[in-house]
Amino acid sequence: MLDIGVEPYLLSSSLTLVVAQRLIRRICKNCRESVTPSVRILESIQSRPDFSETIGVLQRQGVLRKTHDGLAGVRLYKGKGCAQCQGSGFVGRVGLFEIFEVDEDIRDLIMQRKPASFIRSTAIMKGMKTMFQDGLAKAFMGETTIEEVFRVAL
Ligand SMILES: [Zn+2]
Fold first, then answer.
1. What's the 68 CA to ligand 1 centre distance in angstroms?
2. What is the pTM of this model?
3. Residue 142's closest CA among 65, 89, 97?
4. What is the spatial distance between Cα 9 and Cα 130, in angstroms, rounded to a whole number?
5. Fewer C-beta neighbours within 10 Å, C or N terminus of the chain?
6. What distance in Å separates the CA atoms of residue 62 and residue 68, rounded to the nearest whole number?
7. pLDDT tens-digit profile of 6-59?
């Protein structure tokens, strides 16, 4: 928004929440089945720099049990295709969200015209749940596939 000529003081005094949303396909409930995650998929989650934060976020949300050793025993889901979803395995859409509150610290960064990527990593450090973490939670709960999450949330 700074790029389109909005003065920083206007932006920082009027913004309280920033919401980003991407829609992805929802698994068809009629033909949903649980699948064991492949080693490749587990490794691509585990190799992320925010892996331990991600586990913490999902544990606090109740998606992963606290006793779990990281991703041990997690299940993923897919629709195998049926008449209700015309064989696609998907019906409808589900939103992935990233929401952060503009507090004093963030407000200061906006005033200082810090780059958006810096403001975002500060928000993540302050506990913002990222779009990828929201997607992973929805994949583990069977709302969507892990491939859909990887497609939109990096
Ligand atoms: Zn189906």
1. 31
2. 0.82
3. 89
4. 26
5. C
6. 11
7. 566 556 567 788 788 999 999 999 999 999 999 999 999 999 988 988 999 899
Span from the CA of 125 to the centroid of ligand 1 (angstroms):
39
pLDDT in tens, 111-153: 899 998 898 888 888 878 899 999 999 999 999 999 999 999 8
Would you state the structure tokens that stand for residue 17, as one six-digit string?
């929440």
- Compute the distance from residue 25 Cα to the ligand 1 centre, in Å: 12
CA distance linking residue 38 with residue 11, whole number of Å = 45
**How many Å apart are CA 132 and CA 144, to the nearest integer?**
13
Q: How far is the CA of 56 from the centre of ligand 1 (A)?
A: 33
Question: Does CATH number 1.10.8.60 belong to domain 2-152?
Answer: no
Instruction: Name the token pair of 123.
Output: 């928000």
Map out the domains of the chain as residue ranges. 2-152
Token pair 């396909």 is at which residue? 25
Q: Report how far residue 131's alpha carbon sits from residue 117's, in angstroms, rounded to the nearest whole number.
A: 14
CA distances (Å), 23 to each of 95, 97, 105, in order?
4, 9, 30
Distance 33 CA to ligand 1 centre (A): 10
